Structures are given as structure tokens and as C-alpha cells.
Amino acid sequence: MDPMISPLAVDLPELAPLAGVRLGAIAAGIRYRNRTDLVMLELAAGTTAAGVFTTNRCPGAPVDWCRAALSGGRARAVVVNAGNANVFTGRAGAAACAATAAAAAKLVACPAKQVFVASTGVIGETLAVDRLTAALPALHAGLRADGWEAAARGIMTTDTFPKAATRTARIGGVEVRITGIAKGSGMIAPDMATMLCFIATDAKIPAPALDAALRKGVAGSFNLTTVDSDTSTSDTVLLFATGQARHPVVPASGGPVLREFAAALHDLLLDLALQVVRDGEGASKLVRIDVAGATSPRSAKRIAMAVANSPLVKTAIAGEDANWGRIVMAVGKAGEPADRDKLSVAVGGVWMARDGGVVPGYDETPVVAHMKGREIHIEIDIGLGRGRATAWTCDLTHRYIDINGSYRS
Amino acid sequence: MDPMISPLAVDLPELAPLAGVRLGAIAAGIRYRNRTDLVMLELAAGTTAAGVFTTNRCPGAPVDWCRAALSGGRARAVVVNAGNANVFTGRAGAAACAATAAAAAKLVACPAKQVFVASTGVIGETLAVDRLTAALPALHAGLRADGWEAAARGIMTTDTFPKAATRTARIGGVEVRITGIAKGSGMIAPDMATMLCFIATDAKIPAPALDAALRKGVAGSFNLTTVDSDTSTSDTVLLFATGQARHPVVPASGGPVLREFAAALHDLLLDLALQVVRDGEGASKLVRIDVAGATSPRSAKRIAMAVANSPLVKTAIAGEDANWGRIVMAVGKAGEPADRDKLSVAVGGVWMARDGGVVPGYDETPVVAHMKGREIHIEIDIGLGRGRATAWTCDLTHRYIDINGSYRS
User: Fold this and answer.
1) What is the distance in angstroms between the Cα of A42 and the nearest Cα belonging to chain B?
2) pLDDT band at A192 (very low <50, low <70, confident <90, very high)
3) Which residues of chain B have pLDDT under 50?
4) Domains, chain A, ordered by start
């Protein structure tokens, strides 16, 4: 295997065309040489949109632009560049977003506010927006219904493999398709930890219902994952419904008719989120942390994330050490209700600590074998209530230091 | 220099005897071979005590013991062992604390509740308390007024240098002395990140006033430092006032008579706290982060700690990269009020980013030189208010992974 590709990489799935979406990529020379770095999606007239963005208080200019554009609930195009995040770029950053949207709007013949823009790459450098707008006409002329793989590759920065997922669901008995691409958590060049995700469905779903389904899905997928606890300035998940499928009308409030769609969307989001964790900088192991017995689901999530973000837990996993003492420490530092003497911890299905102490004579052999694998499973029972949550992360290895400790240039 | 000693190490200061304190160390064979691992302090009758402990919700049995013992406000002895943290050890852990205190109380002729105990080392293993109590009589017989260095060395686990500090201050015109020792953040064997600190003064200060001075001092020192964001189960700072100095009476409420004492105590605590950061696992650089212009001091502290705990900032510093984009990211993820377009960042005194954008043509030469040094200075102006705070951390290096990724045994 190419040593530069994550050992946790998964293959790209078959990506069939999705009615109402044409897309593609081009090499615009924004930062990289000899590779595509500019991606465009054109969406059918009537497409509705929903989005979820970074909670970082210093967001990039494209995040500002998308938040404002979403107020209309409609989308006709998306333009994404890789190599420059257009973050901390002042007025020039906002102007670059407006110029990009205007250029794409002219090609698609729509209002600029129906164009969504996203950028990923270095922070604090002015985006070469002229190169971007100069490349747009050729990119637009080459858009294709089968351009999903090209788009998945074109948004990569330091990712080691392209990320995509596709699902089907029925709405009122009619099958619809959902397809998404994502990038995130790559390696080698720093400052590129941005997570971007673009999803489209041929379903016809009003923007409020689409928004509700997306928020719930992201809460149960991307927001339960972490690579290194550092929240990017540019995280963006956008979902577009092209309305090409012929299913019964979906009300603005969504409701039971969307139940299967929401489940498929959640499944797709989780698939993409775990692909991002699998490509976490330096990752050699994918780690799942199940917390039960917390006083509430919210408390369980906080405990799970405290364990997932603990450098001492993550380095122990990199060292293939089932170090339950560090897991106990991380549970305790979460600040959530916990009683040391009711706490139990299992690794690889073996309960090593129960009710506040080590389990005398537990069999370490299967635990040692589990720790040598690629997928690590930690279970924690707080012993106080019925709150449950799951978080996913990767281990913390030398490669993380290599990737992020090298000088930018 | 010995490659196993932190490049940021400082020399042990001269440690004069302090009236009312005798102390020493012995090799009790609790975990280590051929080195001291059991320390005792005997304190004069009438000594008052104050303590601050870990916020971890899964504290060790010795922390439980000390919290209960502090309710009396009096202390006659302290017993500390290195090598075993006595954490997550159930009823046996509590019994070990009681047995240790009883054995020391017998030697000193005091109530067991005037004996404080502390432990540091591996989590989840039963403490060999019989070896500890067996070694106590010989340890007690050898206590000396000049045993400070022996005690500073005896509490080390994976520390690479012993840590101590001493100060003088006047109370009502009479000079008093404050001397403290600390351990923390060592290397090589994992599970030993515990921070312990023991301080004594010959001043005569009522327990409530002592407690107030200690809490304020710890808030401005240890609680502003971080090595890896993982809060230990055993962190303990204990302060004892032996009352041997002949100064005017200090009221229980403390007040202006303690102003100089409180300042000296704060200075000593900060000295010890920075010694711990200098011995941070794998540390190659000491990092100071000054935040100004936040909406409140509390907000400034949270922003400073978010930067200090960011793996991406810390790996950049290890790579000698003045990566202000990552600093902006960390400010934004703190969740505190911040306005990207009013934010300014300086490294080594050079303002690289101001009012939301890079400073055009700033001189990178002095910044590059600064980043190659041992002490890194980051200044952040939020531009919103008058809240200030400072935090200290170290960089994140390959050695941190080496230390914590190796199997426990």
C-alpha cells in the first residue's frame, strides 16, 4: 500500500448520476500544480438547500457568505476551491466570495445569492480569485451528471483518499437517492484541517424540513467525531434537494413521510464522518467509544468526547495499550456526574474494570489481540442513569507531529 | 546535557531550613528500586493547613482523605509515596490511606486526621501499604530540618529534575519564609502525570486566611498552566503554616497584613508551576500566551487556555513555525466573544496579524529567530474589552508520543 494513504482508507463507492445535479473539477492553479483544485456543482431550478457550519467564532468568509445565502433556502450552484481557505482575509475575502458567486451566477443564469461557495486550505493568504473566475467558464462547460468522483477528488487538500457515500430511501413509496462527498483531516501540509461535505438528493423537500433533517443528522454523525479537538474555521455541510423525484408532496414541517429519508441521510452522514476520521492526520486506528449509564444523553456525549479528545488515551491506543486508568481519568475530567466507585470500563468487549476497581484475574489475552487491530472499541458504564452516547476518533501518532510540526512553506 | 533531562530544566535553589518543619525521604521499595520513593514532613504543633485538589470527578483515595482531614484546619505530618497513585483502588485504597495516617500519627503523637497523605504513580494497582508503614519508623527517625532537597527528589516519578522554590515576605514588618516543592509531568513511564506540591511557611496564619491566599495563588499559577489538557486524578497542593515566626497576629480573615505574603506566595506558586511545565512530557519550548482585549478576565483565560491546549498550535511551535492562522483558529474555537475583524496576533513581539488580516510586509526575520529559542511569547488582542489573562504551556513533540505511546510494563 502507498505509505501516504491512510491504513484505514476505504474504497470509493459506485456513484450513479443523481437527477438535477451536474458537476466536475478543473485545475485552476490556485495553489496546487498538476491537479484539480476547483469544483462546481450545478443544481436544477427549484433546488432547496440546508447547511450546517463551524461553531468557530472566527469563521472564514465563505462561511459568512453561505449563512447569508441560506436565508433564501434555494440553490442553483456550488463553487469550491482547494488550497486556500479564504479565512482571516478581511474585506478582500468577502469580495472574493461575491466575485466567485457573481461569475457562477452569470454562467448558470441565477441570482448570486443562489450560489454557495466554500474554500479549504491555508489561512490568512489572499485568495487568487482572478484565477478562479477565469477557470469557471471552462469548468462549467465540462459539467457532467457522472462527475461525482472528479468532484470528490477536486476538493481534497491533504486528504489521502477521496470520500463519498450514497444511499436510497423511499418517500411515500417512491425511491429517492442521496449522494454526498466530503474532504477532511488530511496530512503533509498543515493548516488544512477543514472539513467540507456536499450532499444532494433528487427528493423534493421544502427547505425547513431539509434543514431539520440535516441538523439532526449532523448532530448524530460529524458532531460525534474528533481527530484532534481543534475546530476548523471553515467546516461546512451543505445538503441540496433537486426535487426531480416524483413522490408525494413533503410538507414544510417534514414529519413521518421523511422518516426513512432521515434515517438514510443519517447513515450517509455517519459514513462520510467516519471516512474523515479514517483519514485523520496520522491515524493508524479508528476508535469507537460507547458510553452508557450517564445521567443524560448530553452528559454521556460530553464524557465520550472527553475520552475521544484525551491525548493520553489516544497515545496509549497508538501504543496498543488498553490503558483503562487513562480512560477513568478522562471520564473524571469531563466535569459530568460520575462516581468513581460505580464506573466500569471494557476494551474489545472485555470488562477490565468494574464498580471502581480492576476486575481480578480478567483475561488480558483477547484485549492485547484487540489492541493490535485497526478498529478499537471502548465501552464505559457510568452506572448512574440511562444516558447513552457514542463518539469516534483516531489514535495520536508520531505522524500527527510530523504532519503538523513541519514548516508551512 | 543528559538527554533524559528536560532542555528547559532549571537548577534547584538553595533551600534553607524553615522553622517548624523537619523532612526527609527513604527507599521503601514501593515500585522503584535503588531510589527514594517515600517522603515525610513533620510539622510543629499548632501548624495550620490549606489545600487545593484536582477537579477530576474520579479522584484518588488520598485526595478524599486530605479533603476530609482539612476540615480540622490543622496538620502535624505529611506522608507521600511515589510509584503508585492509589487511584481506582476501591475500599483497599481508602484503607491504605487510613493505615498510613495511623502509622504516622503514632510516630508524631497526633490524631490521624492531622496527617495528610498523597500518592503518585500508576492508576488501578493496589498500594503495597505494608511496605510503606514498615519503612515509616526509620524515615521518621531520620527527618532533618535541611531535608528539603531529599524530599523534592523523593516525590519524583518521571520528572527529569527536582522542583523547589523559596521566597521571603514581611508580615507586620517581620520577615517570614515560604518554601515549596513540587513534582509533575515527567517522562518515560506513563500514567504518572500527577502534579503534587507541598509548601510550608513559618508564618502564623489562621487556616481560613491561609486557604484564601492559597486559592487565589493557585488560580493565578497552576490553574493557568497545561501540558496536555488531561487533568490528573491526584493533583494536590498543600500549604502549611508552622506559626514559628514572631510577627503580629493575623486575623482569620487575613486582610492587608497578608498582602506581601500573598504576593510572595503567588510568585512561589508560579515558579513551581512553570517548573512543572518546563518538565512537561517531551517539552522543548516553554510557551507564554498573553490575551488582552477580551470581554472579561474569565473570557480571556478561556481563550488563553484554548490556545494553550490546541494540538495544532503546539505542534506548530515544536516545528518552530509562527503559525498565526492556527492561533486564530484556537481563539475562535474557545466559544468566547471574539470578532475576527478586530483580532490581532503577535509572536515574539512582532504583530503579524492585525484587525482581522495579515500585516502587509511585516518583518519575519525576528519572528523566525524567536521561534528557534526556548521561550516562546504569543500575544493576542481580542479588541473587544479590557479582559486580560496569561497561560503557560509547552510544545507538543515526538517525545510526548514516545513517552505515552509505549506499553506500561
Assistant:
1) 31
2) very low
3) 1, 186-193, 407, 409
4) 21-278 (3.60.70.12), 286-405 (3.10.20.340)
pLDDT in tens, B134-153: 999 999 999 999 999 999 99
Which chain A residues contact residue B55 at CB under 8 A? 333, 335
Q: How far apart are CA A25 and CA A138, in angstroms?
A: 10
Q: What is the rounded CA–CA span in Å between residue A392 and residue A286?
A: 7
Distance, in Å, from the CA atom of B31 to the CA atom of B44, rounded to the nearest integer, reads 31
Residue B293 burial (CB count, 10 A):
19
Amino acid making up residue A249: V
> What DSSP state is assigned to residue A34?
S
Best CA proximity match to A151, nearest among A193, A107, A195, A182? A182
pLDDT of residue B189: 26
Nearest CA in chain A to B303: A57
**In angstroms, how far is CA B139 from the centroid of its own chain?**
25
Query: Residues 174..193 of B with a Cβ closer than 8 Å to A: which?
Result: 190-191, 193
What distances in angstroms separate CA A191 from CA A4, A87, A407, B231, B340, one per listed residue?
Answer: 18, 11, 11, 28, 17
Residues B130 and B217: their CA atoms lie apart, in Å, by 36
Distance CA A389, CA A104 (A): 42
Residue A17, SS3? coil
pLDDT at A186: 41
